[in-house]
Amino acid sequence: xxxxxxxxxxxxxxxxxxxxxxxxxxxxxxxxxxxxxxxxxxxxxxxxxxxxxxxxxxxxxxxxxxxxxxxxxxxxxxxxxxxxxxxxxxxxxxxxxxxxxxxxxxxxxxxxxxxxxxxxxxxxxxxxxxxxxxxxxxxxxxxxxxxxxxxxxxxxxxxxxxxxxxxxxxxxxxxxxxxxxxxxxxxxxxxxxxxxxxxxxxxxxxxxxxxxxxxxxxxxxxxxxxxxxxxxxxxxxxxxxxxxxxxxxxxxxxxxxxxxxxxxxxxxxxxxxxxxxxxxxxxxxxxxxxxxxxxxxxxxxxxxxxxxxxxxxxxxxxxxxxxxxxxxxxxxxxxxxxxxxxxxxxxxxxxxxxxxxxxxxxxxxxxxxxxxxxxxxxxxxxxxxxxxxxxxxxxx
Amino acid sequence: xxxxxxxxxxxxxxxxxxxxxxxxxxxxxxxxxxxxxxxxxxxxxxxxxxxxxxxxxxxxxxxxxxxxxxxxxxxxxxxxxxxxxxxxxxxxxxxxxxxxxxxxxxxxxxxxxxxxxxxxxxxxxxxxxxxxxxxxxxxxxxxxxxxxxxxxxxxxxxxxxxxxxxxxxxxxxxxxxxxxxxxxxxxxxxxxxxxxxxxxxxxxxxxxxxxxxxxxxxxxxxxxxxxxxxxxxxxxxxxxxxxxxxxxxxxxxxxxxxxxxxxxxxxxxxxxxxxxxxxxxxxxxxxxxxxxx
Amino acid sequence: xxxxxxxxxxxxxxxxxxxxxxxxxxxxxxxxxxxxxxxxxxxxxxxxxxxxxxxxxxxxxxxxxxxxxxxxxxxxxxxxxxxxxxxxxxxxxxxxxxxxxxxxxxxxxxxxxxxxxxxxxxxxxxxxxxxxxxxxxxxxxxxxxxxxxxxxxxxxxxxxxxxxxxxxxxxxxxxxxxxxxxxxxxxxxxxxxxxxxxxxxxxxxxxxxxxxxxxxxxxxxxxxxxxxxxxxxxxxxxxxxxxxxxxxxxxxxxxxxxxxxxxxxxxxxxxxxxxxxxxxxxxxxxxxxxxxxxxxxxxxxxxxxxxxxxxxxxxxxxxxxxxxxxxxxxxxxxxxxxxxxxxxxxx
Lengths: 396, 293, 347
Prior knowledge:
By secondary structure, chain A is an alpha/beta fold.
């Protein structure tokens, strides 16, 4: 008897909780406030437009009437790609401005600096635009979730493809000497399981002017496969240089640097022909998606709310998918805008089709699996455009 | 052997870039007594102007000439408005002004033209000249080396044989005495800025075809040009240009032949240069400035 | 390149000359009390911000001795800041050293490194020394990323600092414990800096800066004076770096870009050359807080505004924020007392 009363009381409490609005700091009857921290100054400014993009997206949402009657305020902060500044900004957002959550941040070293802080505070740290594997660790860090596929997973895709289709090749690798380059490199080499396939692996630093001597060392190694792990500027330099010195190889290019207008066009489309890369998004400039509804919606958004965005810059449209997913979760949350509820919703997405994702790729998460996008497709540059080939590959 | 020659060519290619930037530094140093940290950013800004002109349909060479002219005037205005108030200030304060300029110009370029890399056409030709089997040199590299030579000759003749060049040097060396002999010191300082910016603009349009154009383009050339200028002697146009070339070649050779060279080439190159400076404090070809007591 | 420094002497001997010594001491004690009282008055974020500013201020105090008093330009002290930060991180990560002691070890390691680098580098002057140190700053992230030391430094991934708050009976949370530690070191360095610049060392530094040949003739050991200034600046920067690492609880190569060295330089000049305490403090606050403001003014072009503010401050007063403050206070004092304080005018 006592038991059933308690159960009843508990049920009532739960029901009333579901009906009445429940807010954590940063949410109210008429506002939802969240933050995003990106480099808007300094050497990594090229990636900062994602923050502007997310803010612009919610301008659009607000013009449509907001989310469940609430206006969304996005506080975009600048970390200059410095971990110390990132922590300062995150603490400002959480403790001073009182945001409900932080989402869409860029960068591995910077997000590392706030990884523990966000989890100690139990404030959602969502949909990071960084591909380090460590973000998918719900057991130790239940409040942090990435968005894009991990660099390591992508590296493994190339390694497997090379092992299957050209097992006798010798590989020359150019990699950026930081966490991004090392993540790709380590996973790629580990997956090859035969280190002798790597003829040479040379690094470059982002402070360098050119990578010409690296390219000459790579060519001299006799490699016939070139794995280009570089950020856009140096990736373009490397592609052009390989062409100029007549280093004839099968080239693999990491996905963060495969935008046609930002990388391949500067490098020269002739030199870029035949490059293999991976993709999980629809490239707005690709005529294959000329009729696509997602791309049309993106273009409309871009022209109205985000005129600074470029349809050739990967960062500028991947964040559209991020923003859409944030909107989805906030809509689902209804009146229960608590840290816990948001995290629960984010970690229970099932086959959620965010716009711009390739057909066959959807977002699935669970409390044990914090990796939203776990599939990619290989593609090859035909001299004019990227063309997908093969099936969508599940990554791990 | 081919590999060695290839490294040499790569070294000359980046060395040529450093050399011409080093000449801009020599120009500003000889005429104002300061090393302008913002010189690289100013060169980038100029290059963006040239790029914009080319985008509007102007042929490249007229665009470059117009850019040099605009940079010349722009730098004179900058000197008059921003730098002039610090004419009598402590060296450290002047360096801080350069830091401020560096940040402002860098950020302005990013805000106006964004941070995506842009291809920039070569002023010569996009092809390359084949020297032997498996070895070729970019026409652009040859062109920029010739340009470096031309700028060098011009700067040298300017300081050595022209009245104006002498006046500029005098104004930098000793303001008071220059005033007494009737040199318009204020005009000389502004002129030094203008000329340096003009050379910087040339450097920029030589660099951009190699590295692509983006707001971050100026930093690495500036650092290595500075190293080259100090190695060769910042008072000597010839020494500075040669220093720039040496730094470029050194960098390529270290990358190719020294263990961990690729990773530490900047550090190793700088250490080597510093060791030279410890033996010859004014650089290989620089004059030792007499000390006033 | 010889410094026209006669007009700087007023600030360099210090405005505190007007005050009687006990009064000045009282002022310092009061300032320290305010800093201590802030522990309970401020919230977590503010304490973190204050810790951050004070650790930069410690570094700037040292750098001010090198640049302001001794007249040597360094654009590379971020490297020593990094050495300090990494020493602290490794001490905590590897040897479980209490975080309160890490600045001491960082200072010792930093001084060793500073002596090794300073010995040869100090034979260079002016722009040459600036380049040598700038090169150091450029190379710092590369060295930190290298596999060669990755076992200790954590390589590209960086290191976390596991920091325990003070024992429970003290009733302090983590932010408060860190803040109090920073304040303690700040107090120590404020004391050291004042003692040094007001003592014989300070005279040797100023003499060396203004006229090395005359200084030598007067019996000052010029090389020794320069080395001392350099080593002290390195000591302060490593301690500042260690404290900053403790406050952030994470270090990575990207935490120490060459821009950090530029920021430290800016803090010293904008704060006010040769203002031993107030200048570094204001300068540190400037480099931490002003970028946040300029970002509000023009997002996407914040450095453009920031650069303009830097130039603006030193255009108003070449002795930076401290100079402006001193100017204001003496103006106010003159209004109140109705007198005119005698001041050395610029020539």
